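idk why but the lab printer keeps eating my pages so im just putting this in chat instead. protein + acetyl coenzyme *A:
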Amino acid sequence: MSTYQTVLLDIKDTAAYVTFNRPEKRNCMSPTLHAEMCKVLDEIAAARCKVIVITGAGDAFCAGMDLEQCFLEPFDKPELMAQINHDAFGWFTRLKNNSAVTIGKVNGWCFGGGMALAGILDIVIAAEESTWGLSEINFGIFPGGGTTWAYANNIPSRKKALYYALTGETFTGKQALEMGYATNAVPLVGLDAEADRVVKMLSRLGRVVLGKTKEVYEKVKGMDFEAAIDYEMAKMWELSRETNDDWVRTALVSFKKREFKPGLQSYELTKDV
Ligand code: ACO
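predcted complex ->
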């Protein structure tokens, strides 16, 4: 596994653990971090991971973009700025569309671009004590680079969404859960245990079905009912083919033998599907 300056990567079995490692800068995302995340995602794809867990070292999840290195210093260097944006939005997009399940462990400060990151992940477990904020307004811009998309798609109440974007007021991980930005919130001391519990559940499931579940959810959201049925059934046969019909030939055969109750548990994977 490669070593990086700004990110720690640890791949255990089918899970990849990514830690932003600039605690002295509250894990804000520098150009180096963006370039390194492109390589980290290559490594994770090559390892065929089912799950990607992202967190921050120290007391921050991510304090957003590095305001000095991503904006102030390259402001009059358009080519450099374009390269930084290419890397940043490239890995954000790849992460959002990743076939692995992406999980955020929001352990502390989470601002601006950090909220974009939390917003594109599939599952977010927040420390109740963590502090979140759309701080862009405090220095005179609106949330960009995917952050408006992220907060608009994760805070269902327009009144709450606009309130936080317009005032820059911070909110806690507990409030993030109430608004739907986080899947769950637990006291910081229990954050690792809760994430491990979720990773364990996902690790028992098939790689292909996890990826297709995400893909179908994202596509179907924009379809009418009839189109959704057609698309879902087409994808179902695609899944079946790509997994050698494992759902019928292994899972349902096992159910017929009364070896497991699908309502309460998953079937035993016999091959890497
Ligand atoms: N960009 C660049 N440097 C940063 C950033 C950032 N986003 N966030 C923190 N740092 C640096 C600080 O400048 C400081 O550097 P120094 O040690 O060289 O002085 C170091 O990280 C530690 O920060 P402190 O402010 O001393 O830490 P503290 O724990 O007191 O406060 C907090 C943390 C609240 C996160 C504060 O650092 C802060 O307000 N950061 C900016 C958050 C923000 O608005 N991010 C931008 C969002 S908008 C976007 O992403 C596009």
